[in-house]
Amino acid sequence: MLNKVKGTADKPITVDGAFNTLTGAARVRANEAAAVSPGLYRMRIKDPGEAMVWRFFMLFDGKQQRMGQHSKRECAPMKKPEELKPFEWTLLNRTDLYFRLPDGQTPETVRVEIPRIYNGVGVAGESEHIIVRNLIVKHVWNDGYNIHHASKNIAFENVAAIGCGDDSVSAHENCTISVKNLVAIGNGTGVCHGGTAEADHENMYIADSDSRDFFVLNRRNSFRNIAVEASAPATSEIGDKGDAVLENLRFHSEKPGARFRTQNAGQVTAKNVELFNYAYLGDTPGITVVNDPASVKAEIARKKAELFAIFGDKLTAALAEQ
Question: Which SUPFAM superfamilies match (predicted)?
């Protein structure tokens, strides 16, 4: 957490991750989980609060299991412990975590992990002029990059967020941030901001989001050169009367039924925004639903390759278990 950390415009505070991966999940230790019946285990966790339950997940041999808990859409009811199938979990009273393994398997033979760290990078307390670059954040409980209070001029460059419980990057309250060269894969939400935050984004690849691919409810945004491979069932939108500039955005969904909305936004200008297999809810000139996916897919593939090349083999390795 960077709290009340202040650089200047001439001498910003720079945090360089050297393209290392910060992992927020850790293995369940033998003394943490007890067998209550063959294959069924119980462990106690600290009450995280209701909202954090929606973001909770487990990992079984590297495979993420959310059990229908979603931070930005309706959640499934929690199962009873006796209803669990192998590699499933449930959380009762927000403190009693149950999970089931296949017959004959134990937490010693299966790598069972839970999220231990809330955010990958947190910035708060009216911090100023900070640059975070060259970092991969993976499997944190909440956001990959979380910005709060009135932190100003916070920049993220060459960063990735993988399998986070909530957003890849999320600015709140009165913060101002910029994001350049972001890869966001398998997070609860592709990108999400709120409050009176202002955010500028350039060069992003978003894929495999769990709830929403694109959900910004803050005062002002700009998005330039963005590629989205849609998978999330909830509507992507610019809302809450926020203003936005959109240039060169490509959204592709394999299945019909995806939605993008600007109806609830403030002033939106758009240029070269193309959606395939989408319903567009709004009337902003420059946003087009296309019938031929070829150009959209080609542009997304180009942007993905361009961004992956920045990370070299480090990103590929981080995605190997997802």
Answer: Pectin lyase-like
